[in-house]
């Protein structure tokens, strides 16, 4: 543990060391790991090493879980109004430091500063929602279920919960997890993405400044070993996961085998269905924004367009619009999209684009050999559009997770629905049309958890839940909204009898029935 002057929320990173080492947060203290293994956190626009993140040791992991376990009894008995007030303060502090958070996100993750602000803001909305926890977790009461007997149910916290995060939303996803969990009365162990852990550290500093007691939120780092330790630990009751299907299904299976509840949000292939009656300019703007924003590294990015009938004639205009986007470091004010997260990600994206060409798709716009002046070492991929894509192509079957838009064609609306429904993923799907009747059919028949009607990225605000389906989600209680509160609480049902019959009614061994 560092000297007292360093073990504070105001100064979590080691001073003096370059690059700084990302600390764990254990029992309210930011502590350097004793691990001998560290991973470089790399600025994807420059390849500079921003910081180093440890593979947290087994002992440190155990210490974090113990701290969370020890903090639970008093935190669960802290009035819900007090817990809400911590969130009320936290949302104020996140607003105060939104620029600092956004700068950290752009430096570690690469997205533009404006988009990084959106990343923070969409998480902030969950904190705001958690401020109403007293109402959200209300139980139920039925009076006089039998003579003189009332039954009521209350929602109680589970205990120690954990969150495992992906790289693409370094602030929003941690904020989907711990604010709901802790305001329900749980304590938490967070494992940020090893690629961009900085925002989680800043958010934890703010949570402590807001008054979150020591041990209620803890942070550990690492990759597979830390994740497996979370899955196996008998003190952890529930796991929130967001990331790829490989990791998500592994965690879902391993943690469920240990009796934990898991909510696992995973990969996607979100389709836009475009009808010829749609408003052309608005639709094309939406497709370009949702296809290439954040360099396509959003789980709700629109990565496939199904043009129905004559709307395929709009492809030319789509290409023109995509060409006008500026690819640059996210720190540059003119950037529309920044780099992808790593060299490996760029290689994978380029390979999938080439596989599409090899399989017979036509490359209408090629962003694979882009060079950004001043940032020649960055992992940039420019907007790329492939058309004549078929469902059997690898570029269609795989989630590309880059600035690549695939175009397919359907002769009819019914055929378009069939294409979308045959895809294994079910995160989101959007329809562009001016026909209410068609929109209603789409809403009813489309097999995706989040549906947009003339809305390209239909991510619900926190009073609803994030409702991916099919291969995009495992579990049955979604993130945030009512389902999120249910995920982080368990129901206890109490049946009480207060009768004014001092002598009782004698002994009866028959099963009690309500009469
Ligand atoms: P990832 O699965 O590689 O990593 C996510 C987390 O899992 C990280 O913390 C990582 O350390 C851990 N991890 C990685 N591989 C693991 C393994 N084999 N075993 C155990 N743990 C492992 O995901 P990523 O690349 O960081 O994020 C991108 C993915 O996340 C995309 O598939 C995207 O669609 C998905 N995503 C989904 C949503 C959603 O809400 N559905 C939101 C954001 C991102």
Characterization of this structure:
It is a single chain. The chain is α/β, with parallel strands linked by helices. Helices cover 36% and strands 21% of the residues. The chain is built from 16 helices and 22 strands. The protein has helices at residues 58-76, 80-96, 98-109, 113-130, 133-136, 172-183, 198-209, 224-232, 245-257, 280-292, 315-323, 343-358, 394-397, 413-422, 436-445, 481-487; strands at 24-26, 29-31, 38-42, 49-54, 140-146, 149-157, 160-164, 187-191, 217-219, 236-242, 261-265, 270-274, 302-308, 362-365, 384-387, 404-410, 425-426, 428-432, 450-453, 469-470, 473-474, 489-497. The protein has a seven-stranded mixed sheet with strand order 14-15-16-13-12-18-19, with helices on both faces. Helix 7 (198-209) links the parallel strand 8 and strand 9. Helix 2 (80-96) packs across helix 7 (198-209) and helix 8 runs parallel beside helix 9 (245-257). The radius of gyration is 25 Å and the shape is globular. It starts with 23 loop residues before the first strand and ends in an 18-residue tail after the last strand. The model is unreliable at 1-7 (pLDDT under 50). Nicotinamide-adenine-dinucleotide is lined by residues 164-169, 191, 193-194, 223-224, 227, 242-244, 246-247, 250, 265-268, 299, 399, 401, 427, 466, 468, 472.
Quick recap of the structure?
This protein is α/β, with parallel strands linked by helices and 515 residues long. The chain contains 16 helices and 22 strands.
Hetero groups? nicotinamide-adenine-dinucleotide
What does the overall shape look like?
Answer: globular
Distance between the termini: 63 Å
Report the sheet with the most strands, covering strand number, pairing sense and barrel closure: 7 strands, mixed
Average predicted confidence as pLDDT = 96
Strand order of the largest sheet: 14-15-16-13-12-18-19
Q: Per DSSP, what share of the residues sits in E-state strands of 2 or more residues?
A: 15-25%
- From the alpha-carbon coordinates, what is the Rg to the nearest angstrom? 25 Å
Number of strands: 22
Helix percentage: 25-40%
Please give the count of helices. Answer: 16
Derived structural class = alpha/beta
User: Which ranges are low-confidence, i.e. pLDDT below 50, for 5 or more consecutive residues?
Assistant: 1-7
